[in-house]
Design brief:
Length: 274
């Protein structure tokens, strides 16, 4: 994992300064601090430490991923060459802002969901920023959520367009299976949820269901003796405002694109100390 993170960070550095930083100033040894300007859950420290290590910047002390932070908190103290600190400043701050925002949104949704359903899992989706997925998924986990699939290679998942191509739910579920991969099926109706369970799905995703529809699907699966044979996931338009409603419906997983595509970033600043 560390090697992959290094590779990504080097790509980001090349994007940000393909020919170096042309704003040349005298280089000297300096100390600097990164300060929080918002309140939430800190995430990205481990990634930023790898970035600073690549730039030969020493992290003298820092808070940890997952710690609560508030405005004015010093989250990292640095020492290194001024040109290195200035060259990596924006990338480091961007990573902390984005990851901390996601961790904060995830933690909020986990807290609200588990207040009514202590065992429910709050998960991410693949609605992520191209090139930044690994960091967004890490932030979800730091916030107490589940990363869900990292890629199309992680799980057999039949969505509405797969079913449309196959011509029917039954034909789509004849996809070649492996004992190492679970089969998840996205459904849009209570009837299809029952069919998916009867056809042998491991996970049923109730997509864009209302809480009332979720309750109906869960009850019907239970009545037919199928509830305990499947994992029930709810997805579609789940936000911090309605997550508790869905969690109360006796579901196992709630997945939300909100936590990666709409979570507000937390603000940070880097200050060179005189």
């Amino acid at each position: 994992m560390k090697a992959l993170i290094k590779k990504k960070l080097l790509e980001f550095l090349e994007e940000d300064m393909p020919y170096g930083d042309v704003t040349a100033i005298p280089t000297k040894d300096v100390e600097a601090v990164i300060v929080s300007k918002g309140e939430g859950v800190l995430a990205g420290v481990g990634v930023v430490k790898i970035l600073f290590d690549l730039a030969e910047i020493v992290v003298m002390e820092s808070k940890k991923d997952g710690e609560p932070i508030k405005p004015g908190d010093v989250v990292m103290r640095l020492r290194g060459k001024s040109d290195s600190i200035l060259a990596t400043e924006r990338l480091a701050i961007n990573i902390l802002m984005r990851m901390s925002g996601i961790a904060t949104a995830t933690a909020k949704m986990v807290e609200r969901a588990r207040r009514v359903n202590p065992k429910v899992v709050v998960a991410a989706t693949r609605k992520t920023t191209p090139g930044f997925r690994i960091f967004e998924k890490m932030a979800v986990e730091i916030g107490g959520g589940d990363a869900h699939r990292f890629s199309l290679s992680d799980c057999l998942m039949l969505k509405d367009n797969h079913i449309a191509v196959a011509g029917s739910l039954e034909r789509a579920m004849k996809v070649k299976r492996s004992f190492t991969k679970k089969l998840e099926v996205e459904v849009g109706s209570v009837g299809d949820a029952i069919k998916a369970a009867e056809f042998g799905a491991d996970i049923i995703m109730l997509d864009n269901f209302t809480p009332e529809m979720v309750a109906e699907a869960v009850e019907e699966l239970r009545r037919r003796g199928l509830r305990e044979k499947v994992i029930i996931e709810v997805s579609g338009s789940v936000t911090p405002e309605n997550v508790a409603e869905f969690a109360a419906m006796d579901v196992d997983v709630i997945s939300s694109g909100y936590i990666t595509h709409s979570a507000p970033a937390l603000d940070f600043s880097l200050r060179v100390l005189q």
